[in-house]
Specification:
InterPro entries: RNaseH_sf
GO molecular function: nucleic acid binding
Protein name: Tc1-like transposase DDE domain-containing protein
Number of strands: 0
Number of helices: 3
Radius of gyration: 28 Å
Distance between the termini: 70 Å
Length: 91
């Protein structure tokens, strides 16, 4: 089953003939009706779930950072390891 919004590129003869030749059933749909599109409701539900899962994951990871690590990262006198100068090896 294929759904499109009946815009001009979707209903051209070549497109229609291709779908018919490939036996692709097309859901009858009024032109220019994105508010009636079922897939938009699916995308909305997916977006809400992903946002909630992301928020939960961020909160869990935040809680797992040891306070000492947070303190060391915000203490300007002790820069993070990535900013410390590396000692050159002598041969």
């Amino acid at each position: 089953m294929f759904q499109h919004n009946n815009t001009r590129p979707h209903v051209t003869r070549i497109c229609t003939e291709f779908l018919e030749a490939e036996n692709v059933p097309v859901l009858p749909w009024p032109a220019y009706s994105p508010d009636m599109s079922h897939i938009e409701h699916v995308w909305d539900a997916l977006g809400r779930r992903v946002r909630q899962q992301l928020r939960t994951a961020i909160e869990e990871e935040w809680d797992n950072i040891p306070q000492a690590k947070i303190n060391s990262l915000i203490n300007f006198s002790d820069p993070p390891p990535t900013f410390k100068k590396k000692k050159k090896k002598k041969f």
